[in-house]
Specification:
Elements (H helix, E strand, L loop, with lengths): L1 H29 L3 E13 L2 E14 L6 E16 L5 E20 L5 E13 L19 E13 L4 E8 L6 E10 L2
Antiparallel strand pairs: 1-2, 1-8, 3-4, 4-5, 5-6, 7-8
Length: about 190
Amino acid sequence: MKRTIGLLILFCLLMPVSSVSAGQDTDATSAAEVPLKMQIVVSRFQGEKKISTIPYTLTVVSAARSETTRLRMGVDVPVPQTVIGEGNTAKASYIYRSVGTNIDCTARPVSGGVFRITLAVSDTSVFMPDADKRAVDPASRVPGVPAFRTFTSNFNLLLKDGQVAQHTAATDPVSGEVLRIDVTLSVIK
C-alpha cells in the first residue's frame, strides 16, 4: 500500500513536468520544415549615390533543428610581389588572394509565422586607392598597389513572410563608401 501511494505521489509530481516539456516539443515541431527563400542584397553607396548592388538568393529550410545553408562566391586575385633571385636580381612573382562574398544562413520558426534568421556575411574586395580619388586617407594611396577591404557581420533577425529588413550600414574608413545589407524573407509555397 505504501509503495502504491509512493508511486502515485511520484507520478503526480512528474506529470506536470512531462506535460510542460511535451507541450514545448509540440510547439517546436508543430511548425514543420518550411522552405524559405532568402534574398540578401549587399549595396555600396557614396553619399546618396548607389555605386553597386549585388543580390544573393538562398533557399533555406526552417526547422527546429535547422541546418546551415552556405554560399561562397569569389575569385582568387593575383597580387604582384618582388622576389630577389640569384645575383640580387628582382623577379616578379604572384601570390593569390581570395576576394568575394561568403554567406551562412540558418532559419528557425518562432511563432505566428515569424522566423529567426541567423546570418553571417563576409565580403572582401579589391580597392585601388590611387585610382579612386574618393579615398579619404592619403596614406592608403600607394601607386599600383591594391588594398583589400574586408567586411564581416554576424546577426539575427526576426522576419515574417514578405518582410524586408535592413541590418547593416557601415562606412569604409578609406573610401567613405557605405556598405548596406538588406534581407528579404519569402515563404516558398
